[in-house]
Design goal:
The chain has helices spanning about 1-15, 25, 50-60, 75-85, 100-105, 120-125, 145-150, 185-200, 225-235, 240-245, 255-265, 280-285, 300-315, 320-340; strands at about 20, 30-35, 65-70, 95, 130-140, 150-155, 160-165, 170, 175-180, 205, 250, 270-275, 290-295, 355. With about 350 residues, it is an alpha/beta fold.
Length: about 350
């Protein structure tokens, strides 16, 4: 019975996925492409092979390209990074980062095209003439400036009005900085102690990057993982998990605020969300009503795809490279959907990418 259920799920997934040789095969069907950066366009140090040429060809075809990144950095920093890596930022119609959107929310920007976070709105209205205080889990680079320019001063967790989770390298209360470089054991002990104290005080948290892992070797944790851990501590202090989730606001994919900025009033079915991460890019695209394109040989699932591919070879299932690739993708996709209880797509059904590409190449 279990085997039959697995085969039925795989058949269902296979019928909804289209494995494509390159971007050219889907470009004519869509006007707008929402592009993830890290894991699709570059690896943090250099562009992936063929990506610069793909961007140029899409631009020549008149495609609307919008970068939709979960980076906790502000837009100006992402523009500078793109230029440093050899991209022309002017090729993109918009460059949207979770960090920029979070900064606007923290600043009390009322022009944003989505409903305001009611918990933050209450803090901003009741402390209008007082100092706004924030505790920061940071990147160790520009955390103080990020908060200050949004109107917040750093403070201890016992005085903080909000927690800003924008990195997993430092813990900063404005006086003392605990860095992961000084020892991971010390860092994680301090992280746990801080979250426990914050949960007792029921301090709200804004997560400026919902990613849980980074597409580097070993898949190191990202701010989304801090948000998950904090929710688990909050759950002990609430009768309802809904109440604890209200206190943690995640900004970025797969949550719809960033899609409201990217798509606006246009038809989402004309747009394709291109990303490497099933939990954020593909889930978010589906929830926003877009088509989705899963990049599998770069980014966070590349190692899992390779392992699934090797396992099939070792088991002598098939030696045809294309068929092995398709089966490996379906295997990873099926395993992802089976873990939905710990994923962002909980309650949203089975995730089924519209297209699957090895790389973001023309």
């Amino acid at each position: 019975m279990m085997k039959n259920k697995s085969l039925d799920r795989q058949k269902n997934l296979q019928q909804t996925n289209k494995n494509c040789p390159g971007v050219k095969s889907i470009a004519e069907q869509h006007d707008t492409f929402l592009l993830d950066m890290w894991g699709v366009m570059h690896d943090g140090s250099r562009p992936y092979g063929g990506v610069l040429d793909t961007i140029k060809k899409m631009k020549d075809c008149g495609k609307r390209m919008i970068i939709l990144s979960n980076s906790s950095k502000r837009q100006v920093e992402s523009i500078a990074m793109l230029a440093k890596l050899g991209f022309d930022p002017d090729n993109f119609d918009q460059i949207i980062t979770s960090g920029e959107v979070s900064h606007r929310i923290l600043s009390g920007d009322t022009t944003l095209p989505f409903k305001q976070w009611h918990i933050l709105s209450k803090i901003l209205s009741t402390k209008k003439n007082c100092e706004l205080k924030a505790f920061v889990f940071g990147s160790g680079n520009g955390d103080e400036e990020y908060c200050r320019t949004a109107g917040w001063e750093l403070s201890s967790i016992n005085e903080a009005d909000i927690i800003i989770a924008r990195g997993t390298f430092t813990i900063n209360d404005g006086t003392t900085v605990v860095s992961k470089k000084d020892g991971e054991d010390l860092y994680f002990r301090h992280l746990q102690d801080t979250l426990k104290t914050a949960a007792l005080r029921q301090v709200p948290m804004i997560v400026c990057n919902p990613d849980k892992v980074r597409p580097d070797k070993g898949l190191p944790p990202m701010p989304g993982a801090i948000g998950d851990t904090y929710e688990s501590f909050l759950d002990h202090n609430f009768d309802s998990k809904k109440d604890s989730k209200d206190l943690v606001k995640r900004i970025g994919k797969p949550f719809l605020e960033v899609y409201a900025l990217a798509i606006g009033d246009t038809d989402p079915t004309n747009a394709v969300m291109v990303g490497d991460a099933l939990e954020t890019d593909i889930t978010g695209g589906e929830l926003a009503g877009c088509k989705t394109c899963w990049i599998v040989k770069d980014g966070i699932h590349s190692e899992a795809i390779e392992v699934a591919n090797d396992n099939q070879k070792n088991n002598g299932i098939n030696t045809d490279s294309l068929l092995l690739f398709e089966k490996s993708c379906l295997k990873v996709l099926e395993e992802f959907n089976e873990q939905k209880k710990v994923r962002y797509h909980l309650g949203h059904g089975v995730i089924k990418p519209s297209y699957i590409l090895p790389h973001f190449q023309w």
